[in-house]
Amino acid sequence: MAARPMPDAPARVRQRQRAAGGWRIWWEPEAAVRELGFAAVELDVQRLTWSAREASRLNKLVAQSRAGVAPTAATGGVRTVAALIAAFTASPAWGELSPDTQRDYRGGFRIIDQKWGGWQVVLFRRGIVVEWFEALHRDRGAYQAKSIMRKLSLLMSYAERREWIEANPCLRLRIPTPAPRDRVVQWHEFDALLTAAAQLGHDGMALAIAIGWFTGQRRRDILTATAGQVGADGVWRFTRSKAATGSAQAPGAIKLHSELRPLVQARLDLAATDAAPLCLDAATGVALSDDLAGKRWAAVRDAAAIACPSVIDVQFRDLRRSWAHWSREGGASDRDRADGMGNQSDRNARLSQTYNPPTMAGATRAVDAVRRPIAPKRAAGGA
Fold first, then answer.
1. Which residue of 44, 296, 320, 378 has the fewest CB atoms within a 10 Å radius of its CB?
2. What is the DSSP letter of 98?
């Protein structure tokens, strides 16, 4: 084996020789550090000095995180990426975003900060952005690479408005858009998930799964649902966390399915107040938070996969798409399903590709709708 490119590499730097003879070097956090929100970062074998500095910077961030000290942006007027993130998250535009959107952005910003936090924004060029996208695409996949690039472009647009840079280097990169996720949960898979949740005693997750399956609503709206939102008429009225128009305050209302209503009623019978959460975690006695719901979902899915292996790749968000699929199979129109989900999937091409993909049942209905016109009967004795 040839000598390593960085013989005195900082802690957490990994170096591996490729089959073709080149080297790959990267910063790899251990499991305990990953739990703090850090992820692996690719380094540059052609820029070993920079790579060493970057690894040392990341190690410093880890030490600060463990000590409970928030990493600070560079001082002295240097307009770094870390400073840009801090400025954007303190801006009025940030405050207008919904909590779910802020949470999603923070995850992407964390990855961007780990890679580029110490860099001056003005140093970014299109070539650097393209190279990083290709590395992300290779290491994290098309979906996450596209998502991170979108968040970096958002930051750079803000930097352009603040006149930190003359132009956004993330524009017009011709980054391919990955096909939307198309996983549809089958009925027997839903039954397996519900059975596993009941066997594990995760009643709150069982109800959340049922609500997602029978209403097609977003996970955030399901987890924050309360007893008082369900009326005696069997209609769940709530405020959508995300609206078709982009507003964070949009009313939603959907009738509970006949199979769902008794499950919800069983919970309502136990709720002490209207503010009581519908999806109550039995083990902790509190509402399912995002983190707790993620843990319960993983446990339920793994247990269900023992009897039904195909569910192992199912994500909670697939329940929403599956509702749209099965509703369409039952004959609901695109407009009706869009009304139910509170989006514009009947008009927006991208959303339509996700929620209204072609189906054999739909094509069959269209084929069977073709009828030969019936010729009018001639009157008796007519010419």
1. 378
2. -
Question: What pairing do the DSSP bridges indicate for beta strands 235-240 and 250-255?
Answer: antiparallel
Distance set, CA 97 to CA 70, 152, 242, 383 (Å): 23, 17, 10, 76
pLDDT band at 247 (very low <50, low <70, confident <90, very high): very low
Query: DSSP characters for 305-364?
Result: HHH-GGGGG--TTHHHHHHHHHHHHTT--HHHHHHHHTS-TTT-HHHHHHHS---HHHHH
Non-local (6+) Cβ contacts of 53 within 8 A are 118
Q: For the residues of 356-369, what is the DSSP string, one character each?
A: S---HHHHHHHHHT
Dihedral, 267, 269, 271, 276 alpha carbons, nearest 10: 50
In the 8-state DSSP scheme, what is residue 197? H
Is the per-residue pLDDT at 34 higher than 80?
no
Query: In which order are the strands placed within the sheet that holds 41-42?
Result: 13-17, 23-27, 41-42
Look up the pTM and report it.
Answer: 0.63
* E strand residue ranges, 58-158: none
